Amino acid sequence: MNSPNVEIISDCFINPKFISEEAKKPFYFSPWDLLMLTTNYIQTGLLFRLPENQDFSITTFLDDLKESLSTTLTHFHPLAARLAMVKHENPPSLTVSLNPENSPGARFIHSAVNLTVDDILTPTDVPLVVQSFFDHHQAVNNDGHELSLLSVKVTKLVDAIFIGCSINRMLVDGTSYWHFINSWSEMFKSKGQNIHLTHISRPPILDRWTPTGSDPIVNLRFSHEVEYINRPNRPMLRERIFHFSSDLLAKLKAKANSECNMTKISSLQSLSAFVWRCVTRARRVPADQETDCMMAINNRSRISPPLPENYFGNMVQTVRATTTARELVDHGVGWAALRLHEAVASHSDKRIKEGMDAWVKSPYVVNARVHFDKNSVYMGSSPRFDMYGNEFGLGKALAVLSGYGNKFDGKVTSYPGREGGGSIDLEVCLLPENMAAFESDEEFSTIFNE
For the segment 108-126, what is each residue's pLDDT rounded down to a tens digit? Predict the structure, then answer.
């Protein structure tokens, strides 16, 4: 599809409506946050049908969005700041923090494009133009010294509105990202009726978690950006969204548990195992080579004492199951799902803290070239996040779509299905030749087309 350009109509910055004394203090990152220094911003958005009501005004709508965003930022004030970096010479190291005094605020862009809902949702693959619905294209989190840590881009289509948010990954994991969006939607719905700004249903907890006994200010042992900044030239990928109904997932879960003579394997573990097997076959991985499936896992409830879900920051880690391509393909989906179930079940407080203690002794940042193997499948996000509950006065969204950030061959992102009921949408990113083989894989076709 030859898409027209997305035209920027206006561009401004939004600040918290009220700034507390707490918001003026320096803000230091946790080890989990610092790990994300060179990954891309999180970029996810919602596509809405344009209201048929003739009284709808895009100007009024944008004003309401800005007003509610300003109020929401009062609670989530780190999103309106910028990164600050202090370099040390003896020994060579860096300290990264937030500087609320060094920022014009969160960015807010109004744009437009001559496209329709059908232009976006009808094609088999997600159209490339969707990446233009987000700001900070290809930016890495370290760029937050100069770029806003939050940028909202509202794009008006012929018959739709897309609200795309780009948030610096050092500030949020998926749980915190949707916590912010949920809170903004709540503020928008109140339309200024929420007089007491402390009255928000889920106030964020901004204090950072650090390992017991460690310094809350962590220095990274780098002296120059070239030592840690990673901007890989990503090959062209195909991105496609596959819908799995609750009935189909129930069958897949029952099959996996039946093969293992148990009942504890979850729907997502079963689905992840299914995709892992199909992608491995599609890639034609040699039988004796290792392949692994990684799943993002929320540590908030797994550490002791547990952190509340309102903890605002990074508390996500990956667990992985590893085997050879031969073992993965020769065994059934239940065998692969059990490997994932065991990886999740063994992810304990002890294991989490041992890993973090090791990181504190020898800090590093995530590097896609090092931490993601060409034979890996990575399952990100979660179908448990409340995505479709954010309506912004436009009704239920038509779709959840994402931008350029953090995608590679084998990246799979899970969203709740629009109809709910436990359904799941998977956004699968693969090299074109791998996607073609994946789509025609016999097991995939048999299960997916039931």
Answer: 999 999 999 999 999 999 9
Query: CA 221 to CA 214: how far, in whole Å?
Result: 16
Give strand pairing partners of 291.
323
Burial string for 280-297 (b: 16+ CB within 10 Å, else e) reads bbbbebeeeeebbbbbbb
pLDDT in tens, 236-266: 999 999 999 999 999 999 999 999 999 999 9
Which residues, 6+ apart, have CB-to-CB distance to 201 below 8 Å?
183, 186
Structure pTM? Answer: 0.96
Instruction: Please report the sign of the dihedral spanned by the C-alpha atoms of residue 322, residue 384, residue 163, residue 27.
Output: negative
- Burial code (b: 16+ CB inside 10 Å, e: under 16) for 340-354 equals bbebbeebeeeebee
Inter-CA distances, 315 with 180, 279, 298, Å: 15, 28, 6
pLDDT < 50 regions, the chain = 1
Edge-to-edge strand list for the sheet holding 411-416: 238-244, 424-430, 411-416, 377-381, 290-298, 316-324
Number of Cβ atoms within 10 Å of the Cβ of 279: 26
CA distance 307 to 282: 40
- Distance between CA atoms of 367 and 259, rounded to whole angstroms? 37
Prior bond to 92 cis, omega within 30? no
In this structure, are strands 377-381 and 316-324 parallel, antiparallel, or unpaired? unpaired
Q: Which of 165, 176, 226, 225 is nearest to 204 (CA)?
A: 176
